[in-house]
Design a protein that fits this description.
3-stranded parallel sheet, about 40% helix, two-stranded parallel ribbon, alpha/beta
């Protein structure tokens, strides 16, 4: 039996405590999956973890702004997501409409909408809501933060 794929639908602004809880959940889930993979390689256990999907929507789109500044005494959530994504080859899709409405754009959308520049943080990708719909197909376990 294949376990359901967790989908973290993150809607909280990066300054909200729920945004940090979502990051902590993703980190813990991926670390646990890594431990399970190592155990599976020793032929003792089967990997019980499905891949992890993440989607940034609404105010969470602000997480993808590479120009976000964070004081030194607080965690920089954008950089933390980038590090986690690089470590686990995690995709970081952001709803393009909610990102653009919050002043966050990549090069392609900046050209299309005659914007002066782009400010999408590396590792994040602007996508349509169809990406979220595809993630929700099948056996998906949705967790909203």
């Amino acid at each position: 039996m294949t376990p359901s794929t967790p989908l973290l639908l993150i809607t909280a602004d990066p300054s909200h405590p729920l945004a940090r809880i979502a990051l902590r959940y993703a980190r813990t889930y991926l670390q646990t999956a890594e431990i399970d993979d190592k155990a599976e390689n020793s032929d003792q256990f089967q990997n019980a973890h499905a891949p992890l999907n993440v989607f940034f929507y609404a105010d969470a789109a602000n997480t993808a702004n590479r120009l976000r500044w964070q004081s030194a005494d607080q965690m920089h959530i954008t950089k933390a997501w980038q590090k986690l994504a690089a470590q686990y080859q995690l995709t970081l899709p952001v709803c393009v409409s909610t990102a653009l409405s919050r002043g966050i754009s990549d090069g392609e959308n900046s050209s299309r909408h005659q914007l002066d520049s782009e400010n999408l943080a590396s590792g994040f990708k602007l996508v349509g809501l169809s990406e979220l719909a595809m993630m929700m197909q099948g056996d998906c376990r949705l967790l909203q933060f």
